[in-house]
Write a structure and sequence with these properties.
The chain is an alpha+beta fold and about 280 residues long. The relative contact order is 0.10.
Length: about 280
């Protein structure tokens, strides 16, 4: 079961239960058992094999849905002294609130699911242009600094050739998680290409962005990736920065970051890839 079918089923079954419950209030019949619904409550992000970023969204939305559901189930009090119709009206009101909230939360999860790369959890290029344009226009109106970084995984092709695409995928996942965990609130990480990322940093000048990227780069340099045969190796990244203010459009802005990335990789004389274990075969430049 994938993420969207699981949440859709969770919500649909509860909507059906609410309809049956309202009928039972009116007729005096026994309410349907809640136990039939909870087979889906044990579902975790691990069961769905979600990347870390989408895992956080799933967990947050699931908790909010379950909290709203608990409030709805407790809304009916048959011994309250209210008439049957007053009980029904109160329960209908709470049921309507739950249905509306569950619809909005499911749409929020859908947006997260469709806008994020399924491998790494980074945002896809689907919303990249609109996000860049928003910050570019904000800079034009209010002179608020905004910087982007184009990030390129070091020797990614060689990693795939040496140890296979499964190892390459793990490298991308590790790098995305490392970057995302060290960004600030409001910063956004996009998967720009196969082994390239774009980081959008609002309210950040190029000097500030450089300090942040240097720190993340050092973390990446020290991180040990592992092959299926338990060989340890390092694979960091290089980056190019560009602040938006000198440019007339977002294409020129991205091109500037891309050019600075190219220059950064050419100026580095040290190997872009080095093995962390003596048993690993080093990949030559």
């Amino acid at each position: 079961m994938n993420l969207l079918s699981a949440t859709n089923t969770w919500i649909l079954m509860r909507h059906q239960w609410l309809i049956t419950k309202m009928r039972s209030i009116l007729t005096g019949e026994n309410a349907p058992p809640l136990s039939d619904l909870y087979q889906f409550d044990a579902l975790t992000s691990h069961d769905l094999n979600l990347p870390e970023n989408l895992n956080a969204s799933f967990t947050n939305i699931k908790q909010r849905l379950e909290s709203s559901w608990d409030d709805t189930v407790k809304a009916h009090h048959p011994l309250s002294g209210l008439s049957i119709f007053d009980q029904l009206n109160l329960f209908q009101l709470q049921a309507h609130l739950f249905m509306q909230e569950s619809k909005e939360l499911n749409q929020e999860l859908w947006r997260e699911f469709t806008m994020r790369d399924p491998l790494t959890g980074a945002l896809t290029r689907l919303t990249l242009k609109s996000n860049l344009l928003l910050e570019f226009n904000r800079n034009q109106r209010h002179q608020q600094a905004c910087t982007i970084a184009l990030v390129d995984q070091d020797k990614f092709k060689e990693i795939n050739d040496e140890w296979g695409h499964n190892v390459g995928d793990k490298v991308l996942m590790n790098t995305a998680l490392m970057i995302q965990n060290n960004l600030r609130f409001g910063d956004k990480l996009f998967r720009y290409g196969g082994d390239e990322w774009l980081i959008l940093m609002p309210n950040t000048n190029q000097k500030e962005a450089k300090l942040m990227l240097e720190r993340i780069q050092k973390l990446s340099e020290s991180f040990q990736h592992t092959t299926n045969s338990q060989i340890k190796f390092h694979s960091s990244f290089h980056y190019g920065l560009a602040e938006c203010s000198p440019y007339d459009n977002i294409d020129d802005w991205i091109a500037a970051a891309d050019n600075n990335l190219y220059v950064a990789k050419k100026l580095i004389n040290m190997p872009l890839f080095n093995a962390a274990d003596s048993s690993a075969q080093a990949v030559a430049d």
